[in-house]
Amino acid sequence: MNQDKLGNRVSTVLARKLGGELLRLRDAAGLTQPQAAEALTATAAKVAKMERGWVPFRDPDIIALCKRYGVEDDRTVDGLLRLAKLDRDRRKAKGWWQNTPHAGGLAEYIAMEDAASSIRAWQLSLIPGLFQTSAYVRTLAVSDGMWENPDDIERVVEVRLRRQARLAGESPLRVHAVIWEAALRQEIGGPEVMREQLAHLLEVSEQPNVHVQVLPFRAGGHPCVGGAFNILSFADADAIDVVHVDTMASTVWIENAPESTSYSTFFDRTARLSLSPHDSARLIDSISKGM
Q1: Which of 62, 132, 194, 288 has a CA-to-CA distance to 17 between 20 and 30 Å?
Q2: Are residues 30 and 151 in the same domain?
Q3: Residue 221 DSSP symbol
Q4: CA–CA separation, 190 vs 184, rounded Å?
Q5: pLDDT tens digits, 191-248
Q6: Alpha carbon distance 82, 62 (integer Å)
Q7: DSSP, residue by residue, 98-130
Q8: Which pLDDT does position 284 carry in this prediction?
Q9: Residues 33, 65 contacting (CB under 8 angstroms)
Q10: 118: CATH
């Protein structure tokens, strides 16, 4: 989260996402901030703070602005209200993911993941988190060195597995994952853990909402060689995607349309260089049997 230099306000990724969507809707309606403020009986400064994500959002304000902007799609309004609730819960630390030890940027990411409708994930060295087994997660937590208390490690495992519930249910999260072959061959936890992990990856890839591709070594150079990232998309077809880049030292959020589009282009190009889901499954199975 970021501190506002002009006051004691707090900006969150969720709030900035919501503010950006309201700004987009206002621009589409051809209205100025003072004109939008009339719907709230407030000042243009309040609208500006909302659009920058500096303040918590009240449901009546969102509904009033949507009405002023001529938004008639109930799904769009409901999506904005859901983001607002998640942001309020996040600020009050009420999200279930807050149980993660040293959550930091991870809690922010899980909140966004909870609000997303689809994710495109690119991984170079690890199996994507939504597909990891408990043994795989536990090995990563131990090797990370951040957690020494066994109870903390088990909470990390619990949170990771709980996130995977989004892959099922009435409105399951859609996931398109492109994984470099190295992540499949890296023996995290040894052969037995990896065989179980790869078997689970094959099982998950059979779900209709999951699309798994492998970028083989023979593909050579590719646009995503720079590092792993996730692109989160939302139910509103016109909503701006948000990109999450997790480095060793920090977490970076890409929240503007031009850069987000660039990441989407890189992902799509790399996906085209990758094996088909069918051939990817064959390679995963072959690697598993060879361990």
Answers
A1: 132
A2: no
A3: S
A4: 12
A5: 999 999 999 999 999 999 999 999 999 998 888 888 899 999 987 655 678 899 977 6
A6: 11
A7: GGSTT-THHHHHHHHHHH-SEEEEEESSS--GG
A8: 98
A9: no
A10: 3.30.870
